[in-house]
């Protein structure tokens, strides 16, 4: 099996109707699009801001607790 056939198996061809004409004009006949644009900014890490705020608050409270013991 060629690498192209393997890619087509893993990533079936997509419709190019929604692809901007600038990109569509660059495609060879039969060539598909695997990815266009970028990922959602917080796609896999939607909880990141909350986790950072919580970690910062815990760190700050730990600092205050340690400083008041002396």
Which key phrases capture this entry?
single chain, 70 residues, mainly alpha, 2 domains, 47% helix, elongated
- The topology string of helices and strands comes to HHH
The share of residues in extended strands comes to under 5%
Tell me the count of domains.
2
Structural class: mainly alpha
Shape: elongated
From the alpha-carbon coordinates, what is the Rg to the nearest angstrom? 24 Å
Alpha-carbon distance between the two ends: 70 Å
Helix content percent band: 40-55%
Oligomer: single chain
Task: Identify low-pLDDT runs.
Answer: none
User: Main sheet?
Assistant: none
**Average predicted confidence as pLDDT:** 75
- The total beta strand count reads 0
Query: What count of helical segments does DSSP give?
Result: 3
Explain how this protein is built:
The chain is mostly helical. It has 2 domains: 38 residues, no CATH class; 31 residues.
List the helices and strands and how they pair.
Elements: H1 3-10, H2 21-24, H3 48-68
Outline:
The chain is mostly helical and 70 residues long.
